[in-house]
Design goal:
Blueprint: H1 2-9, H2 13-29, H3 34-53, H4 57-70, H5 83-98, E1 102-109, E2 114-117, E3 120-124, E4 127-131, E5 135-142, E6 145-153, E7 159-164, H6 165-169
Parallel strand pairs: 1-7
Antiparallel strand pairs: 1-4, 2-3, 2-5, 5-6
Length: 172
């Protein structure tokens, strides 16, 4: 992340954007933690900033929507981002709030566990959530067991999924 900031500050905006995309991808492949979610959010907001700098509006909006759909209360830091950037992100957050919600129901097999949506802990199974339409990464954890994240599409309909902790616990 520090390297991405350094190349951005040197005017190497394309390189910073590529690095930030790689950081987001790496964070999405790691087991979910509160720190990982915080880093993912920070990287997405910085990615949006770098994309806007070089007029890559679609990439910026994709990052903004990913963050806002996961937690509409996230706000861009006024010490790091300009008023124009913050207004743009606030407009996306307002659009996400106005979207019709989709219901995601998450159950568990084997034991209860924590449900993660895009890396953010959302509660314990069984859990029903209302989320803005979109694609999400869903994962789970129960003590030292992890259910690997998988993608779920909530763009057109409600969905139900089961986190299989019994399979995660089975000997390899």
């Amino acid at each position: 992340y520090g390297g991405a900031l350094a190349v951005y500050q040197n005017g190497e905006f394309e390189s910073a954007l590529r690095t930030l995309h790689a950081i987001v991808e790496d964070l999405e492949s790691l087991p979910e933690t509160a720190d990982g979610y915080s880093q993912w959010t920070r990287a997405q907001l910085r990615l949006a900033h770098a994309a806007l700098t070089i007029a890559r509006d679609a990439e910026a909006e994709e990052a903004f929507y990913a963050v806002a759909r996961t937690d509409v209360t996230v706000a861009a830091d006024p010490d790091q981002y300009s008023p124009t950037y913050r207004r743009r992100f606030d407009a996306i957050r307002a659009k996400v709030r106005a979207m019709p919600a989709r219901r995601l129901t998450v159950g568990a097999e084997g034991r209860e566990g924590t449900v993660f949506v895009n890396g953010r802990a959302m509660g314990t199974t069984p859990l029903a959530l209302w989320l803005a339409p979109g694609t999400y990464r869903i994962g789970g954890a129960s003590d030292d067991l992890r259910v690997p994240s998988f993608a779920i599409d909530l763009r057109s309909e409600d969905r139900s999924v089961v986190l299989d902790f019994a399979l995660a616990e089975a000997p390899a």
